[in-house]
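Quick one:
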Amino acid sequence: MIVVLAVLALASVLVPFLARYMGGRVFFVASAVALGGFIHTLALSPAVLTSVADAPVERLSWIPQLQLTLDLRMDALSWLLTLIVTGIGALVLLYCGTYFRPTDPTVGRFAAVLLAFVGAMYGLVVADDVYLLFVMWEATSVFSYLLIGHYTNRRASRGAALEALITTTVGGLVMLVGLVILAVQAGSSSIPVILTETPSGALTTTAIFLVLVGALSKSAIVPLHFWLPGAMAAPTPVSAYLHAAAMVKAGVFLVLRLAPAFADVPGWRLALVALGVATMVLGGWAALRQTDLKLLLAYGTVSQLGFLVVISGYGTRDTALAAAALLLAHALFKSGLFLIVGIIDVEAGTRDLRALTGLGRRMPVVAGIAALLLASMAGVPPLFGFVAKEAVLHGLLVAAAPADGAGDPVALAALIGVVLGSTLTVAYALRFFWGAFRTKPGVMALADDVRARPSMTVASAVLATASLALGPLAALAHRGLREVAALAPARPRAYEYELALWHGVGLELGLSILTIAGGIGMFLARTRVERLQARLATGVDASDAYWRTMSGVDRIANRVTTLTQRGSLPFYLAVILSVFVLGTGAALVFTDTWPTDVRLWDTPAQVAVGAVMIGAAIAATRAEKRFAALIVVGVTGFGMTAIFAMGGAPDLAITQALVEIVTLIAFVLVLRRLPARLGDRHGSTHKLLRAIIGISVGVVMALVALVASASRTAEPISAAWPALSRVIGHGANVVNVALVDLRAWDTMGELAVVIAAATGVASLLFLRGRTDSLPRVPRAELERTVRDRLARDARGSQRSAWILAGPTLDPRNRSILLEVVVRLTFHAVIVLSLYLLFAGHNLPGGGFAGGLVAGLALVARYLAGGRYELGAAAPFSAGALLGSGILIATGYALAPLFVGAEVMTSTYFEGHLWLLGDVEFVTSTIFDIGVYLVVVGLVLDVLRSLGAEVDRQGRGGQALTVGGDASAPLGASEGAR
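Output:
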């Protein structure tokens, strides 16, 4: 099963690429993949149908520490649904090969999504864990959204896709809450354990009804039925598969799965019977007034889903058997009928039954296939639909009037509703055949070339043949379906009911004849029925209510956005900080873990540093220029560096200092594009309120620190880190070993955040397209520029080219002292960064600190020579550094898997090397190298974005000049100097 699921997933990824070469024929490849799943399921039949307890189970361990596994189980119910999902899926994909034009550019995407949906449904029905079931459940909603909205240029398709997605996804989220409660109550997320333990109580009852919300939304049960008719905007193959055979069966499947264990939960039967009967009757009644054949079948599907919910949820052995039979029968006849509609639509160009006439003579084969499928839907012998309906009637009759006399009024109500709904089913089945194939007087004849292609009829013919064959072979079907009912409790009766075409003359047969006769009567009196429907029309439409609700939500959202998203950063900060103060302050009020002994400082030096930091913070609020404000804010950061250093944390001190320097430089680069002075109104409004918020945040944070220090009751895990660093990480620097070994997963996540931040900064600055190459200064052109400058220098003064891009600068902006310092120190700083990288495992340093030092070296080159100098210093793209860093880190994380170890496992090597002596290498250093490259890439990206790109935009994208000469080919830089 795991292999089948993996093959379906892989095939769905490869199909779009195959479509580039195969066109529409790619559907045949996709059909073969689904057929493979069908054959695999058939091969498992002996093991599945032998015993309920010995069903094939496969388990793939995912995260053992969290007890997360991929558990798949193929029991009789899963076997039935899997055959439907893969078998009908293969036929529908085969049908798509003739339905779509071979040159349609969207066939690859459509085939891939449809095959992915087959895989999601397969995973859903074989899932043996509630969380895996939920993941697959939501996957079907996502794929159905893509399939319904296949015609992206049509507003109706997009709206219908969104309607289906929201309805089923919201229902699924409600269901998740119920599943979590059931898993907690049972002490396991395993479905068999939950069904075996059968937890009870008010909380379990609540959980069951939450699960039913998801099931009923997926199966389009009233009042959540409106999305299914709207989904008819999808291509017809989507309707034939998702909305007849697969997706809408998911809710019925879940009800049938839970019914044996939870059918006696208070309100279960009453709710399902009431909603199911209402859905069956309302859907059938609506189908009788449809003029679009596809909508007629859609409302008929809603009706049939109500029928399925009624019988699936009752929870006895006979009703479970009947539900399994009806599930199979419905999948066969309804998917086949949708395929027939697709043939009519493609060949005749319309689905309006008022415009169709004479198709019975022009498409006799199609008409014959449709007649068989409609007869099965109406429950006419000898079709399998008749066998399933007889089983339903028998199951409800036994429940309503059992041998012991303890009848159930709910079963009686269900029986009455089923008879009424089945009568409507016969009526709209006749309406479909009459509307599609009857020659109607007064209707313009269709074109002479309207004929059905034989290739399009294959899939529907197979489904019709199966419906016809399973009727006389009902005993064979019973062998495959009886295990579905094995877990449901049996009611007292004289014999064990079995599926059969003929059970003799009885009340079930009488009710079947009554429904057929009543349906024929309604069809013959269709004019009167139409008038009655017109008089009873209320104008209330569930779909309109949905769209009015969504419009209201949009209006409320717009209003809230208008009030809150006003473009004011002070307002946003005030809201965030106020919520923090109120929420956290309320929690502090009710806490009782206050410290009994508070030590305000360790040394007087800490008090002095703290006073400086407080003074700088206050000065920042009084600054009138942006640069001054930036400097005093930086003082608080360097104050933290001093606090860390005095606290015995050199790694933190080094990192804090480097981060503060890089941050200050980044701010300076940004400030070049802003006015020097702060706005006249800065800080002049709501001074008292701002002061109160600021002071409150500081007080709350101080209290949080105090409470946190007193709340610890267990020995902190960090106390063992020095020993773990030696034993596990083979390093003396606890901080660095923790980053690259003990908690390397956290660092991996932080690397991803760093890359996202770099990409975000760049996306804000690069206006038309991001190029990863900085300008280079060709050597020959540089020499010519130097000679020209010397020749033009009237005063005879000469400035040496200490750096490569020096001659490109305006003499007024050059600093020879800065160029000399950068020239002499750049390589030494790079070497220092590498030393910090490799020494960090045992001494202060590491990949993060080393990367920041290397980044500062690049900053110095940019400050001295601008963007041309940065291009010369970094002859590679920032994206390459970022990508290489995360690739190295990921490779280090995954490499242990290839030798049978866990992810992120590190080891070390010791040896003696000539000249170097005894050497020890820890493999986590490889991870640190990845960190180093990511940090360097981030700094380079910031310099390119906030520095070089801002320079370029400042000149309007034009080449900058040499020495103020606009005709010169090279550009001087506005690098921050």
